[in-house]
Amino acid sequence: MGIAERRQKEKAEMRQNILDAAMDLFVSEGFENVSIRKIAEKIEYHPSTIYLYFEDKDSIIFELHNIGFMKLLEKQMSIQNVADPVERLFAHGRAYLEFALENQHYYDIMFILPNPTIKIANCPRWEGKDRAYDLLKKNIDQCMDAGHFSGLTDDGLAFILWSLMHGIASLHIRRGVVLAEFYEGQTSNLVDYSLTMLHTFVEKLM
Fold this sequence. Notes:
Elements: H1 3-29, H2 36-43, H3 47-51, H4 57-77, H5 85-102, H6 104-112, H7 118-121, H8 127-145, H9 154-174, H10 178-182, H11 187-205
Helix pairs in contact: 1-2, 1-4, 1-6, 4-5, 4-6, 4-8, 5-8, 5-9, 5-11, 8-9, 9-11
């Protein structure tokens, strides 16, 4: 490995160390209580080092959001080979919940912790998030083309499905109610049961 390659590798490792430290602190102490100085102390570097990689704290959490949504998108892409659109939609729900349970810190930062960041609030297009949402809508559109969910909009149904999966994920992660404990180890069954009920309900309304 040449000098230039080694330096690039070291920079990438330092950037990842900063992100990992920031994530741990955001989850354990809350976004508002974490400063650049605290992040620097955790990785045992001077605060000025952080600014060589990130403009400010907002930039760090924005990057963590992006990484999280790209991980979610990767999980969703893994089930796109399911031929039947309704079965693929069910697989989509299971993939979402698997992502949430396998990446709980990312999920906390993406969806649960309050993030008063200007960058997130003012971002009209957000590649990872938009691609994940568009992929869900594409699956729904293909279900509609096959004769399901007639009379509904893909945006409306996508919002309902995302909200449903988010609710299940949040209950599992936060252990908020007995239901989450009851279905421990049976998350795929819970997703299938919930989506089956929703599908049946919508079909009866049409």
